[in-house]
Design brief:
The complex is a heterodimer of chains A (86) and B (486).
Chain A lengths: L3 E6 L2 H5 L5 H12 L3 E6 L17 E3 L2 E3 L4 H13 L2
Parallel strand pairs in A: 1-2
Antiparallel strand pairs in A: 1-3, 3-4
Chain B lengths: L2 H22 L3 H6 L1 H5 L12 H15 L13 H10 L8 E3 L11 E4 L10 H5 L5 E4 L2 E4 L9 H5 L5 E4 L2 H5 L5 E3 L5 E3 L9 H5 L5 E3 L3 H9 L4 E5 L14 H8 L3 E4 L1 H20 L5 E2 L4 H10 L13 H12 L4 E6 L4 H7 L5 E4 H10 L18 H4 L6 H9 L9 E5 L3 H13 L7 E5 L15 H13 L9
Helix pairs in contact in B: 1-4, 1-16, 12-14, 12-18
The chains are: A alpha+beta (86), B alpha/beta (486).
Chain lengths: 86, 486
Amino acid sequence: MKKVKLQVCNGTTCFVMGGADMQNMVDQLMVKFKDCLEIERVRCLNACSLSDNFAKAPYANIDGQLVGNANFQTITKIIEEKLSND
Amino acid sequence: MTNEVLATKKLKNEILVRLVKAFMSDNFAENVRLIPYEMRPKGSDVPFRCCIYKERAILRSRAIAGLGFAMEEDDEKTLLSDFANRALERKKPEEYPLTVLQNACKGCPSSKVFVTELCQSCVAKPCLSACKFGAIEHVNGRSKIDVAKCKKCGLCMSACPYRAIVKTIVPCEEACPVNAISKGEDGLAHIDHDKCISCGKCVSACPFGATHAKSQIIDVLKNIKAGKKVIAMFAPALVGHLPCDASQIKEAFKKIGFSEVYEVAQGADVTAKTEAKDFQERLDQGAAFMTTSCCAAYNELVKKHMPELKPYVSEAKTPLYYTAEIVKKEHPDAITVFISPCFAKRREVLDNDKINYILNFEELGAILIALGIQIDTCEKQDFAYKSSKEARDFAVSGGVARSVLAAWRGKPDAIVPAIINGVNKTTLRDLKVYAKTGKCPLGNLVEVMCCEGGCVGGNAGLSTIKAATKKVGEYANSSYSLKDEH
């Protein structure tokens, strides 16, 4: 079975820019994808450190692909694409 | 938090971060002027409104509120850079805490009761007989409501066997417990400041993000920059709203430039003990009940809308009041800043000359982002005063009542707590009944918190109520109990 790895950033910027809501998202994603998804809350993905990148927080990393403006819809779409790719 | 509300919160936070970044730059006024253009540069996507110009106009308005000014007074031709300079010159914050962005306000359709196409034109027609105002008639095979006669009582809605009658609402009007915000003749929302208790429910309710708090973020930063001794006093709820350990909060404030940090829980210990003593005296005099007095929105509610309840409100001051008193005694020359989960405390801060400014959790978060402070890497430090478990748990619904119980030295069964978890139109009615009848059937110590969940559910928070409650509780449990203090 194909499995996707999701890392969710828990850094200060991501938390302030809506990351607090990520726990709800993580719960929803676990229900939706069950064993096809491995989720890790990481301390920081260091994605926001460049000039204006804070505005795209919260960030997530899906199988090595950095995703900004992370929310249930954007993340679900990318996971589904990755799962259906083979 | 729903996604729409999250999007408006995120927009407001982005503006605040950019304002702080501009403040830290060597050309504050010009960089503030550029904010709408940097967020919507030429040719960029237009995610929310009709065109890029409207988006920029609204971003300009949000920046003006972020600079601490009322939108109602904007003449639209003043440059953002002029507002930025005015914010630097301002000696004290503006009077009313909340403002409506007229250009962001959608001008929602007025609230009305309305028969949908699901009406089956039934034989019984219970809606017609349910209406006490003769507002419903049956025309062209469907019930129809005469808006002029309808009082929006909703009886027809519950009478309809198909639930085919609905009531549309205006989110801000519906959320306001005291009818202080309503659509004016121009169709846009207006705040009646004589009625407003600054609870901020309209801020959370508006899906267009049209109500804003007037920020004091620049006022605080300019005092820090001027090298003044600025002291942070943070609300107990903050521990639940930052992604770090409570012991790292002190270092984070110091990195921003605050010279000292106090937990408002320190003052909550005084409030709990004072309130327990107050309650004992009242019981001795035969009082039927007493309400708590720490929620700023509730205190405003009593003052503006229910003066008859005033005799039942505890004489104890708020935890913030006592904390500020301690801080000003220890540091008479300091500028004090309260770090708040809600908007209502702005009113209390404006009225207390021992507290100079207020920042809410969102504004603190924006400063952390702009200054690049990674809070979970901050050094762990203890606070000079160790607050009790109950004081640290003050921020959670039921926490104030628990603290009074812990500080209670009278008969153990004399206190029966009754918890009002969130002020809304229903709980407001209950409170009015208690005041009118002089008794509360649910208990004798009535804890009132305007926000659902308590201060951890404050509308300027960063985390969810559930997660924040858990974290505040864990931190509280690491301390001693007021019960064991002698």
